[in-house]
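Same chain as my last thread, 243 residues:
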Amino acid sequence: MSRATHVLAGTTLLGLVASLWLFINNRTLHDEVAAKTAALDKIKADTIEPTPGSDAYLDAKKPRDGKVSFGPTAQPALPEVPKESRLDRRARRTEEFGAMFGRAEGETDEEYRARVLPLIQLGLARPRERTAENRKIAEAKAKVTPEQSAKLDQAFEKVYSDVLDYTNKAVIDGQLSPYERNVAGWLDYAGGLGGILNDAEGQVGKILDAAQIKAMYDAGFEWGEYLGANAPWEKLTPPPPKK
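reply #2:
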């Protein structure tokens, strides 16, 4: 297996994780902004001057002696935000990822898919759209015929099946887990994924000629990136509950 295929497998895996991670991070930022906005609104509400008629003493007429007194005025302050180190933030986001993509105690396969499937589809929507458009452009430059394109899709069905079987085993074995950061396991998984992608490239070589493959590569298209984004990840077996 070529070094480039290993690298591509790793970047494909990281790209998928990053898509889901950015989705979570975006939701977290929205929650933080909403909390700070609510705190500011509360401070403003507490410091608004009373309307006429709400305080009898303030509304009463008093003798004026021409003196203007200036006294210290308490400045409103934002509530203190607890400081969080980078490691604390990493641990918190690992917990958030596990809570979102892990299986809750007593949650069935159907309930898990109903909860998580929309998140996966949302996270992969943009990569799938982008890679599909890139393939269309690259195939046009390489003069790939509709018949060849259909044969590629047919060959990829076997690739997708192998990817799902391999990934399901990695999840069951704990190599891939939503509950912990297992970098060694991720790299090991990426190596096996690279082998599957290498076989997929061999299938491409049986359908397209060398000139077409080179033309698509020169156009910036990568089959590994396309397959990684368009694999039916929605069909993965849900992970076991956290032990």
